Amino acid sequence: MTKKYRLFTVFSVLFLSTLACARTVAPASTKPAGLPAGETTHVLTHDGLERSYILYVPASVNRSQPAALVFVFHGGTGNAESAIRMSGFNEVADQNGFIVVYPNGTSLLSEDILLTWNGGTCCGYAQEKNVDDVGFVRAIVPDLQSLVIIDAKRIYATGMSNGGILSHRLACEAADLFAAIAPVSGTLNFSPCNPSRPISVIEFHGTGDQHIPYDGGFGSKSLVNVDFASVQDSVGFWVSFDGCNSQPQTNSFDDIRHEVWTGCTSSTSVELYTIIGGGHSWPGGQGRGAGSDQPTTTISASQLIWKYFAAHPLP
């Protein structure tokens, strides 16, 4: 073999090897783009059931930093889509750069019709079948952590009606996970409630609510035969558990009475927005349709909830 031929062979092998190595590295344009901004639907299996949730990641989220996470639970017979429309939380997330997750409850009929949550003594299919909704919510967090960076000290829960009831139950059984809760038109209907630590609570409820009465009892328009706890008993439990001052600071304006209990342990606080004459609705949000109670426009629950959440991370 001549010297020239040997050199040609060596260069050929090196050239082909270079090509082979180059082919093992995908061009930048074909690399995974990551979780897109906007809404995406996700499915996981928990306790033998296929469960789903809608995740909203605003473009304003800083992907390199851990982000706050807000769970928004739909009301009884609703679904994740209705929670998005009702609360307007996507817009609040856009403005403030946090992530929102809208889980779906369960139903005998369908995966997106007449869904309910197991909040203790309420409601519907989920309560009757003792569906493990607390476990489902816990399972969502590691599922999300595989997609986005979550700040473990800033995970929060809010919800409407049956979703608000579930928020109370999460405070009772998952205070290690949630920094604060914000029930809307939903009271504490779970016993025994033994939180692992003090937890911040802000609640919204109308005095004219005929589904979950402000003073407790059976709602004249309720779809379930449940003797609901009153707002005062629910808020009173958290005031006592968090070791707050027994007398609140009160401010009234228009159709709103705002009470704040201070002096609570572990930097927690308890607040209550009472909507005088208000019905079963999300303040400042979208009504649930023809014939439903129309929400007050004096305040925006979603804006106030986020402001409260942002001020109450886990210590």
Overall 3D shape: globular
CATH top level label: Alpha Beta
> How would you state the average pLDDT, rounded?
89
For this structure, the CATH topology is Rossmann fold
- Give the low-pLDDT segments: 1-33
CA-CA gap between termini:
77 Å
User: Helix and strand string, N-terminal first?
Assistant: HEEEHHEHHEHEEHEEEH
Helix percent reads 25-40%
Number of helices: 8
**Name given to the CATH homologous superfamily:** Alpha/Beta hydrolase fold, catalytic domain
How large, in whole angstroms, is the Cα Rg? 25 Å
- What is the count of β-strands? 10
Strand content: 15-25%
Which sequence of strands runs across the widest sheet? Answer: 1-2-4-3-5-6-7-10-9-8
Domains counted in the coordinates: how many? Answer: 1
Largest sheet report: 10 strands, mixed
CATH architecture field: 3-Layer(aba) Sandwich
Q: Indicate the structural class.
A: alpha/beta
Question: What does it look like?
Answer:
- This protein has 315 residues and is an alpha/beta fold.
- It has one domain: Alpha/Beta hydrolase fold, catalytic domain (Rossmann fold, 3-Layer(aba) Sandwich), CATH 3.40.50.
- The chain is built from eight helices and ten strands.
- It has a ten-stranded mixed sheet with strand order 1-2-4-3-5-6-7-10-9-8, with helices on both faces.
- Strand 8 (249-253) and strand 9 (256-261) form a beta hairpin.
- The relative contact order is 0.12.
- The model is unreliable at 1-33 (pLDDT under 50).
